[in-house]
Specification:
heterodimer, A: 115 residues, mainly beta, 7-stranded mixed sheet, 4-stranded antiparallel sheet, globular, B: 115 residues
Chain lengths: 115, 115
């Protein structure tokens, strides 16, 4: 069963530090996403990525955030200067074809704690 | 903007009994997809069931079924013959048919199954 994997499962970082969250999507998937869930709140869309560029981003995804697919397999989310309010569970997801009713596969999440 | 509301942060059910998880959503679109995802502890979200808005028939997957009320914008999940392995966080999600990037989640319902 193919699955999306995320590393690390838990990251603790000091406020102001840069953090990179890593994801390995399913190999034949073409669309990639990052979502986050602040404790007790809704899962929120951050960004989608297709053909090596951002296809859509939410208002949460400001200049502190960036994504890239550095080597054709990993899909990373970078937060340049973390803030306390960035503490959340971050989920990566991928789909085979973004414009059809296809299932989105999610990773198990990375819990980011900013102290 | 589309929003998804899960009004039950926590639910519990006795093993072998039936439980219904509520979900309502707000949209001005006529064509969309609805999903229920299950997230076991420390595991990735997995798709439980999905419903296309243009279909009147309620989706069913084994012990899982939905009650889709399009006019009321309600999409509840019924789990019959609950099993201990059903214990998880359940997320209701909405996805626009015209924009695959636009997938909105509720805050989740934590389901506990009592033996």
């Amino acid at each position: 069963e193919p699955e999306v994997t995320q590393t690390p499962s838990h990251q603790v970082t000091q406020m102001g530090q840069e953090v990179i969250l890593r994801c390995v999507p399913i190999s034949n998937h073409l669309y990639f996403y990052w979502y986050r869930q602040i404790l007790g709140q809704k899962v929120e869309f951050l960004v989608s990525f297709y053909n090596n560029e951002i296809s859509e981003k939410s208002e949460i995804f400001d200049d502190q955030f960036s994504v890239e697919r550095p080597d054709g397999s990993n899909f990373t989310l970078k937060i340049r200067s973390t803030k306390l309010e960035d503490s959340a569970m971050y989920f990566c997801a991928s789909t085979r074809n973004g414009f059809m009713n296809t299932e989105a596969f999610f990773g198990q999440g990375t819990r980011l704690t900013v102290v | 903007a589309q929003t998804v509301t899960q009004s039950q942060p926590e639910m519990s059910v006795q093993e072998a009994e039936t439980v219904t998880l509520s979900c309502t959503y707000d949209t001005s679109e006529s064509d969309y997809y609805l999903f229920w995802y299950k997230q076991p502890p420390s595991r990735q979200m997995i798709l439980v069931i999905r419903q296309e808005a243009y279909k009147q028939q309620n989706a069913t997957e084994n012990r899982f079924s939905v009650n889709f009320q399009k006019a009321a914008k309600s999409f509840s999940l019924k789990i019959s013959d609950s099993q201990l392995g059903d214990a998880a966080m359940y997320f209701c999600a909405y996805r626009s048919a015209s924009n695959n990037n636009d997938m909105r989640f509720g805050a989740g319902t934590r389901l506990t199954v009592k033996p």
